[in-house]
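Quick question about two entries, pasted in order.
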Amino acid sequence: MLSRLSRRKAVAVCALPVLALLATAVFAPLPFSVAQPGITANVLGENKGAPVITISGAPARRTTGQLRMTTIEATGPDARVSLGDVVDGWFRTDRAVMPRDAVYPSGNNVQEIERHNTEQMKQSQDAATRAALRYLNLGDKDVRVTLKLADVGGPSAGLLFTLGIIDKLRGDGSGGDLTGGRTIAGTGTIDTAGTVGAVGGVALKTQAARRDGASVFLVPRAECSDAKAELPKGLRLVPVNTLNGAVDALVALEKGKGSVPSC
C-alpha cells in the first residue's frame, strides 16, 4: 500500500498529463466558427453611396420606411477557434458557435468562398427580380432591374430584394408603401416561383434587425423556433412561406386589417 505522501506524489504525477491535455484542448483550434450579428442594409435606399435597387423601363415610386436585409458575421475559415471560444459562445446571446462546414460549405480557401458567395448573391438577385416581375405581371424585356449591394454575399437577401422591387414598382397596390412607414427587416431565400426558403443564423439576425431600428422581422416559417429563442424585446416576428404571403402580411400590417401570421 502506498503511503499518504506517496499517494500525493502519484496523484500529482498523474495530474500533470491531465492538465496538459486540458490545456491543449482549451487552446487547440477546433472545427467551428463563432458568429455574431452583422450589418443590415435598407434595400429601398442606398448602400455605400449607390442605390441598392435601380429600375428602368417603368416609373419607380418614392417610398417611405425601410426594408432591411440582415446578415451575420463569422470568424474566417482559417481562424483559430479554441475550446474557450466555444464555451464563451455557448453562454452569450450575442454569439453563436456553428460548425465551420455549415458556415463555409464551399471549402476553406478564402478566394473560393468569396467566389461562391458572390455567385450565390448573383443567383439570388436574378431570382428576386424574376419573382417580383412575375408577381407584378411584368416582363423583364419591358422593365430592367439592377441590384447592387457591396460587401455582402450569399442568397439570404432574396426575399427582401423581391419586396423592395415590388414596393418601388407598385407598393401595396393602392398607392401606399408596403412598409407602412415602418422599419421592417427580414431574411429568407427566394426562387422564381416566389417560394421562401430557410437560411440559418436567424437568432443573430433578429438582434441585428432590432439594433438597427426594426420593429417587424419577416422569417421563414421553418425557422420560427430559432428566431424566438433569443428574440429581442420590441421585435415582432412574421413567418412567411411564400412571396404572396409576405406581401399579404405587410399589407395587413399597414392597413390594420386582415390576418397577420405569427410564430
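Here is the second entry:
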Amino acid sequence: MTKASSTIKPQEAAHFGALAADWWDPKGSSAMLHRLNPVRLAYIRDAIDLHFHSDSSLLKPLSGKTALDVGCGAGLLCEPLARLGASVTGLDAAAENIAVARAHSGPQGLDIDYRNEAIEDFGGKDFDLVTSLEVLEHVEDPQGFVDGLAASMADDGLMIISTPNRTALSNLLLVELAERTGQVPRGTHHHDQFLTPDELEKLLNNAGLAVIDTTGLSYSPAKGFVLSDNLSLNYLMTIVRTS
C-alpha cells in the first residue's frame, strides 16, 4: 500500500515496496545500495563534522540532534545515523519498506521513528540533519519534493542529497548495463528523470537553499564506488539555508 501524494509516483513506490523483503541482503536486489552506502556515509560524516564543528574521533557526533531521512527504504541510512547519536525519523512512500525497517531496527536496539508518509504531508520540521539519497530521481514533482525537504530543516541545519546525473555515462551504466546484467532490478531507473547538478541546484535555490559542496560518486572496477571530482555518474550535495 502507498499513500497518495503530489510528489510520490505510485508505480515507483510499488516497485520498491515489492523489493522490501530482501532490502537488507547485501547480495540481493539492493546490492548496489549496500556497495554505495559506506562511501555515502563517509561523505555524510565529513559534512556533519564540518557543519556542527564536531571532532572526527567522536563516536556519536549527532548526540542531542535530530535527523530526517526521506525515502528511507528499509533503513540503510537511518540505522547508521542513529548509531551516530541522532534521534532519527525515516519516511518512505512504501508501507512494505517501513514494515521491514521497523522489523530490522528493533533487534538492533535502535529507536527509529519510521513513517509511511510523503514529505509534503509530514508535519515535522526543524531537523538538524535532512537526508535524501537516491530518491529525487523517483518523484513526481522534484520542486515540490525539494520544498518539502527545505520546510523540514532547521534554520541552521544541514542537508545531504545524492542522485544520478543525467548523462550518457549514467544511462549506460545505471540503466542499460546494471539492469540488463541484473545488478539492479529492471525498471528501477528512468534516465529522463535524472537531474543534472545545475538543475538540482536551481530547485534548491528556489526553496531558499544554497549548495556548498558537490562531489561525484564514480565507479572504479578496482575499488568500486569512490568519491571523486567526476560528476558524470552520480553526485552528492551538501546544502544549507541561504544566509
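Reply: The two ends are 40 Å apart (CA to CA). Strands lie at 66-70, 87-91, 113-115, 127-133, 153-164, 209-220, 224-228, 234-241. Hope that helps.
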